[in-house]
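Contributing new records

If you add data, match the layout below exactly. Sequence lines come first and carry their own label; structure lines follow with theirs. Keep one chain per record. Anything else will be rejected by the validation script.
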Amino acid sequence: MEQLGEVASVSSSQLLCIIRNKESYYESFFMKKKDGAPREINPPKPELAEIQLRLKNYLQKRLKWTNAVHGGIPKRSIITNAERHMGKLWVANLDISKFFPSTKPAQIESALQRAGCSTPVANLFAELTTFRNGLPQGSPTSTILSNLVLEPMDSQFLRLCHRNSLTYTRYIDDITISGDINLNPFYSAFIKIIQSSGFEVQTKKVHITPHSQRQVVTGLVVNDRLRPTGEFLSNLKRAIRRCWNGPEEIAIAAAEEGHEPREFIRSLCGKVNHVKSVDPKLGRKIRALCTKIPHL
C-alpha cells in the first residue's frame, strides 16, 4: 500500500479510507443513451479524481500501445482511428455491450499483473479505480485500464487481420476492421474473439458495409476522404454549447464521454480542428463557439 500511496501522493490511511467508503467518493446520475436506455455515470469526486489522475499518468508513462489502439492515448483520437480505414472496399464495425460496467476488478487485476504489477499492488489499484464491481464511466483511469484489459483481445484481432491483410483499430470499445475482401465470412470469428475475452457484442450495432454504401468509423465517413457526418457535427456543437455553462457542466459532459475534463476539452479542440481542415468556413464557425467556453 505504501508503494501505491507514493505514486498517488497520499498516505496509506487515506487510501484505506477511500477503499472502505467508496460510495461517498463518487457522484451518481443517469443519462439517456441514443436508443433512450439509461446510462449510469459515476464520476469520482475531486479528491479521488486527483488520485486517479496521478495513477493514470503513472501508467501512461510506462505503457506502450500498438498502433491499433486510439482511445485515451496522447496524440490519438477518433480521427486517427478513422484514418486507418479510408478507401477500403469493406468496413466492419462492432461494439462491446455494456463495456464499462462489464469490466470487472478481477480482469483489471490480471491486466495490471501482465503489465508488471505485483499481486498486492494490482489488487489495491483495482480497488481504487473500480466502483460497484465495474469501471466507473467518467473516471480518469477508466479508459487506460480498459485498454490494458483489452490487450489480449487486440492481439487476437491483429493476428487474424495480419493473416488476411486486414486493418484493425479500436477506440475504447468501438472495434473496426477493414480491408479489400468481403468481411461477412469473418462475422463469427469477430464475435468469437470478443466473447473469448469475456465480453458480449451488441449485435444490433454490428455493421459490415461495402464501399458502395456510406462507411462510418467513430462518426466520420471514410469512403474516399475523412469527413464528419451530420450527427458528428450536431453532437460536437451540442457538446461545445454545454461547456458554456462552466466547469461543473464540462465535468458532467466529460463524464458522459468517459473522459476527465482536460482530456475532454482537448478532444473537442481536435474535432473542431478536423472539421476546419475539411471545411474551413464551417470549421471557423464551430471554432467561434469554443471561444465562449470559460475554461478556454
